[in-house]
Specification:
heterodimer, A: alpha/beta, 4-stranded mixed β-sheet, 16 helices, 6 strands, B: alpha/beta, 6-stranded mixed β-sheet, 4-stranded antiparallel β-sheet, 10 helices, about 35% helix, globular
């Protein structure tokens, strides 16, 4: 047992002291800090940048332009009546001819006075003339849709006023109708049992689930690659031969896996602390409160189950990475060798990512029992639906059994693989070698 | 009871036999030479001794006991290719290796410093292995093998890639370890090292032990067939002597091949008649010659 901890200590010490570790941790911590402060930064910008866009039109009493002018003036009045209008209409004099007017407005755009201008055509069934918005930019959907909705509000209120409705009736018509949704469970749920989840809670859980799945995926990928490449490096530098004559291979393999686990936990803990610190900065507290995000609302059972899946998922993937690492003699070949495991973990990751809006689909239900996928998929079900207790326990049970099998098998591969040099062995060669080595 | 007894071990890789029934014993304070061409089975034999792989047949005992993890702490190993972490500091990894073999951190550190001083390279304590030359990496690898004062040391091509000065340094260290009672299993291609260090040897050829025993006795088994003759003046007619099969002229004189030892006296008498003799020697065969004779014969 003593040498196990020696291996753990050595692994942790060398990784944590390494430049690569320090730099990548600092860089990611910075990115996290920026990411969390982003909403606040945006609100700062928004307030400053919320100047109305100027949109030009031609003001004229001439017969063909009169209809357009009155529409534009209605719009102008409507926007001016708003508290923080996004659009401001600017009138330009009629220059007499269509070409002259166009020239004048184009000049105004290039001078930066207006962002674009409106042109009006013939009267349509809508009660308004045909409206064309002309600007240098391609995607001005927000602006045109704002104008569209403004026009329809203008039309509605004009019609309603003409119909002689009272103020009260008008308010009633304009108030939106909303439906509250509460997700309930009919059986015995494994999450917060039978409580159900409100929309806000669901949103929060969705965020937490996203976060946990990304965390698991990241730690599996980072540490898995590190475990495999360290083992390959030890093998290619022949340190392995000395190590195996000093420690039992199993102790060495699990020492390495456990050491790497601690490294990943240190790294993730740094990120989580950075994240919590940032979220608790005074300006951010307000911002997040305005989004209805309150971390104390997270279901504790969700965290407990997620932790179980995180640990089991980590160790399952880590042992597989270790086994593959022991088979490869040169670091150059490693990428190709770990490909299948990488793809499986990517598969689990994407299944749960893409199913976040359909957490009760058949795909999710089935994959939440399949060992290599369940660490990614079951937390999704736990967070967003209420799977029954037996389902969760069965899934964890299957996972534990498969870890046992993976450990047993990986240990055999490891014991054999670390002494096989040259090209990567085929399954047949590996089986032969296992027999020859009597493992 | 000898510290290391290898008894008729057999190792097969699939249908290929890598080691075919080799026996050897290494006594306390003895260096045992394991010789053989590339692929003869030296490394496989050593790996079995180290418990890296298990023999298919035969047995290996350590101080009379079979292999167990406890034996690991009694053994040191210097593999043929460096066997160190290139990117980790010398002190970190050697203390680690020492700890893995049951030393405390403090003892390992003390032992490491002692050995670095012994090799006159205390400044390597804080260097990374990749910063060192190949020869110096070899020294560090050697320290890794002996840091925990093991009873049995296995050295695979310990002196390859070293300059003459360092070879001497390592040789004297190995002798010192031997005199302190360590049993050393030693493999090499360099016959002069074996002659200098080893008492007993085994020559392996294609998985079999073809020649085995005490070096002095082995040499007696091979006839003395070379005469070295140095004289002040030219000597003529040496080729006329019965039993002289070949004559090579060197700067220092003549090297004659003879059919049997008794021809030596004839040569001496013949040369004395013509000149003053400064050197006359009937040479015993070198290990190199024995090796080439034993292994080379079988190649044909």
């Amino acid at each position: 047992m003593n040498s196990f901890w020696t291996v753990v200590g050595f692994t942790v010490k060398n990784k944590v002291k390494g430049k690569a570790f320090i730099i990548s941790t600092v860089v990611l911590a910075l990115i996290i800090s920026i990411g969390i402060n982003l909403p606040y930064i945006f609100t700062q910008f928004d307030n400053g940048a919320k100047e109305a866009k100027n949109v030009g039109y031609i003001q004229s009493t001439s017969e063909e332009l009169a209809l357009g002018t009155s529409t534009a003036e209605q719009l102008k009045a409507y926007y001016e009546g708003q508290e923080a209008p996004s659009i401001k209409l600017v009138a330009y004099e009629d220059k007499g001819s269509a070409e002259q007017n166009e020239k004048q407005l184009k000049q105004a755009i290039s001078d930066g006075d207006i962002a674009g201008y409106l042109e009006f055509g013939a009267l349509t069934d809508s009660g308004f003339p045909e409206v064309t918005y002309k600007s240098e930019k391609l995607m001005e959907y927000s602006l045109t849709s704002s104008i569209e909705s403004s026009l329809s509000i203008i039309r509605q209120s004009t019609i309603l006023q003409n119909a002689g409705l009272t103020e009260e009736q008008m308010t009633m018509l304009n108030t939106p109708i909303s439906i509250q949704t509460l997700q309930i469970s009919t059986g015995e749920g494994a999450g917060s049992i039978g409580d159900g989840k409100s929309v806000d809670e669901q949103g929060l859980n969705m965020g937490v689930v996203y976060f946990l799945i990304i965390l698991l995926f990241m730690s599996v990928m980072i540490s898995g690659q590190m475990i495999a490449s360290e083992i390959t490096a030890e093998k290619s530098s022949r340190v392995m031969e000395i190590l195996i004559t000093s420690v039992a291979p199993l102790k060495q393999m699990f020492g390495k896996i456990f050491g790497m686990f601690i490294v990943v936990i240190i790294q993730l803990a740094t990120y989580v602390i950075v994240m919590l610190l940032n979220m608790n900065l005074p300006h951010n507290v307000e911002t997040f409160a305005s989004f209805n995000i309150n971390l104390s609302d997270v279901d504790p059972m969700l965290l407990v189950y997620s932790l179980i899946y995180f640990l089991t998922g980590f160790f399952l993937f880590a042992t597989m990475f270790a086994a593959v690492g022991s088979l490869v003699s040169r670091t150059e070949e490693l990428g190709q060798a770990v490909m299948p495991i990488t793809i499986i973990s990517l598969g689990g990751f994407y299944i749960s990512m893409f199913s976040i809006s359909t957490p009760d689909s058949l795909l999710v239900k089935v994959t939440s029992f399949i060992p290599l996928f369940s660490p990614f998929v079951m937390p999704l079900r736990l967070g967003l639906t209420d799977p029954s207790v037996w389902e969760v326990l069965a899934s964890i049970g299957i996972l534990l059994v498969s870890i046992y099998v993976a450990v047993w098998f990986s240990a055999k591969i490891y014991r054999t693989g670390v002494l096989m040099y040259g090209k990567r062995p085929s399954w047949k060669e590996l089986r032969k070698a296992m027999k020859a080595y009597k493992v | 009871m000898n510290p290391l007894v290898v008894d008729k071990v057999v190792k097969q890789y699939g249908d290929k036999t890598a080691v075919n029934g080799i026996s050897l014993e290494v006594g306390k304070g003895e260096i045992y030479g394991l010789l053989g061409a590339n692929g003869a089975g030296k490394t496989t034999t050593m790996r079995m001794v180290l418990g890296l792989i298990y023999p298919d047949g035969g047995s290996i005992s350590y101080n009379g006991k079979p292999y167990s993890t406890e034996q690991l702490h009694n053994m040191g190993y210097l593999p043929e290719e460096r066997g160190l972490y290139p990117k980790i500091k010398v002190s970190d990894q050697l203390i680690y290796l020492g700890q893995l073999r049951g030393m405390s951190k403090k003892d390992a550190d003390k032992s490491l410093k002692h050995w670095l001083d012994r090799f006159e390279v205390p400044e390597y304590y804080n260097k990374r292995v990749e910063e060192l030359s190949k020869g110096n990496q070899q020294k560090i690898g050697f320290i890794a093998a002996v840091i925990h004062s093991p009873q049995i040391i296995v050295l695979d091509e310990a002196f390859s890639g070293l300059d003459p000065v360092n070879v001497e340094l390592l040789k004297s260290t190995v002798k010192e370890l031997r005199d302190n009672g360590t049993s050393i299993l030693f493999s090499t291609h360099r016959m002069e090292h074996v002659e200098e260090l080893c008492r007993n040897i085994t020559i392996l050829h294609r998985s079999n032990a073809v020649l085995q025993g005490n070096i002095k006795e082995l040499k007696k088994r091979f006839p003395r067939e070379k005469v070295i003759l140095s004289t002040e003046n030219e000597v003529s007619g040496l080729d006329k002597i019965n039993g002289v099969t070949n004559i090579l002229r060197h700067e220092y004189g003549y090297e004659l091949s003879i059919a049997n030892e008794s021809v030596g006296g004839e040569i001496l008498r013949h040369a004395m008649d013509q000149s003053v003799i400064t050197r006359f020697e009937i040479k015993e065969p070198t290990l190199n010659e024995i090796f080439i004779k034993t292994v080379g014969d079988r190649h044909e």
